[in-house]
Write a structure and sequence with these properties.
272 residues, alpha/beta, Rossmann fold, 2 domains, six-stranded parallel β-sheet, 12 strands, globular, binds 2'-monophosphoadenosine-5'-diphosphate
């Protein structure tokens, strides 16, 4: 049977085996999906062993996405721009292709939540790996403007340089952001320390959609703060997680699973 897996360290917390097992049931694809935790310096060897056996494809999560980018024999355009690979697929010709479905997963979840991207003015907070992964797919939706704001301004400028050919992207200082945003996305890891990036509360209008790429059983700190400022629609990153998985599954199996049922089950499991 075709074997798929997620590689990460640590991996115990990963929801990918649950998600892909449900996708396989839903689409009646015959496959198994497991979780693999290589030692930090053993990632390449673990990948090699996996593909020498029955491995057909895998997901890669922290801290191995950049290493997977190096390991892939061919890269898709979006993986090249993201500088990281979260999906590997072994073709019938034995070529290992590296892709990145994180940004597509975000866009899919925004669309499932009826958020309009075309013509929108978007603020993306953070300029780390998570932000870089979503810039290309967001720009492909033709927003009016995508502004990257980061605590360390130079990193926002670096992202702008990478993506400038794809659309109207610019870098902004936290303290200088102004005007009305249709969508504000938090890609920072600030929530991990229970913190919220220091942007002005004035940027949050009732109509501004707030998207936190983090998720948790409770409302995330960023979304809680945005709600306090009056934001009506706040979304966390659980749907993005399911979205990126659905995109990976489609790359491997040629059939796109539905996100809704899996997302409902995950949300239910988080709450219990
Ligand atoms: P990831 O792969 O999750 O993006 P990363 O590459 O380490 O992780 O990037 C973390 C991002 O969160 C960065 O944009 C970081 O800002 P700096 O570049 O200034 O470090 C941002 N970040 C982390 N903690 C933050 C905080 N407390 N407030 C604001 N931004 C924060």
């Amino acid at each position: 049977m075709d074997h798929y897996a997620v590689f990460g360290n640590p991996i115990k917390q990963s929801k990918s085996p649950f998600i892909h097992t449900l996708f396989a049931q839903q689409t009646q694809e015959k496959m198994v999906y497991s979780a693999i935790e290589p030692a930090i310096d053993d990632f390449d060897a673990a990948l090699k062993a996996f593909f020498l056996e029955q491995g057909k494809g895998c997901n890669i999560t922290a801290p191995f996405k950049e290493q997977a980018y190096q390991y892939a024999q061919q890269l898709t355009k979006r993986a090249e721009l993201a500088g990281a690979v979260n999906t590997l697929k072994l073709t019938d010709d034995g070529i290992l292709i590296g892709d990145n479905t994180d940004g597509a997963g975000l866009v899919l979840d925004l669309k499932n939540n009826h958020v309009t991207l075309k013509g929108a003015r978007i603020l993306l907070i953070g300029a780390g790996g998570a932000a870089r992964g979503v810039c290309g797919p967001l720009l492909a939706e033709q927003p009016k403007e995508l502004i990257i704001a980061n605590r360390t301004f130079s990193k926002a400028q670096t992202l702008t340089t990478i993506f400038t050919k794809l659309g109207n992207i610019s870098a902004g200082e936290f303290s200088e952001l102004s005007g009305e945003f249709d969508l504000i996305i938090n890609s920072t890891s600030a929530s991990l320390q229970g913190e919220v990036p220091l942007i002005s509360a004035k940027l949050i209008r009732p109509e501004t959609t707030i998207y936190d790429m983090m998720y948790s059983a409770q409302v995330t700190p960023f979304n809680a703060w945005a709600k306090e400022q009056g934001a009506r629609l706040t979304i966390d990153g659980l749907g993005m997680l399911v979205g990126q998985a659905a995109e990976s599954f489609a790359i491997w199996r040629g059939v796109k699973p539905g996100a809704k049922q899996v997302l409902n089950e995950l949300r239910h499991n988080l709450a219990t």
